[in-house]
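Sat 14:20. Reprocessing the chain from the morning session after the first attempt stalled halfway. Input below, unchanged.
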Amino acid sequence: MSTLTTNQDLDPAALRQAFGVFPTGVVALAAEIDGEPVGLAASSFTSVSLDPPLVSVSVARTSKTWPDLRRARHFGVTVLADHHGAVCRQLSGPVADRFTGIDLTTSPEGAVTLDEGLVRFSCSLYREVEAGDHVIVLLQVLAVDRGANDAAGHPLVFHRSGFGRLERTA
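Finished this time. Tokens:
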């Protein structure tokens, strides 16, 4: 086994590749702002706590979307399915085109979710934590819809800068 690299020797590109070895799920984080859906794709979603019910996503501090999105009182978080690779790329693309052709549901409180998601959460902002070049966004879960897609669907997996799916074994 080789010697671990020290903090002073870390190359950002090599570190990105190392982080990419660990697969993650992908979610859409969205809300209605000034009558329009605003959102982004995040591959850093994780459950945090059951009491209170909390989840988190990490957003780059350079994000142009988060400053607008964080104005929302309620957020929709949609766990994307393995067939949503193109949707994920769209949600990461030009702001004006992010929701074109995507079937959405907007709650009365303004949480926006994708209709074909595996699981959909309605959340409120709990706390933001600065973490280097990202902000860890803690969201309190207010409601959850596991829908019909949950039982049969597979999550979209982000791994080594590409999309894949989980293979379930017995």
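The longest helix spans residues 12-19.
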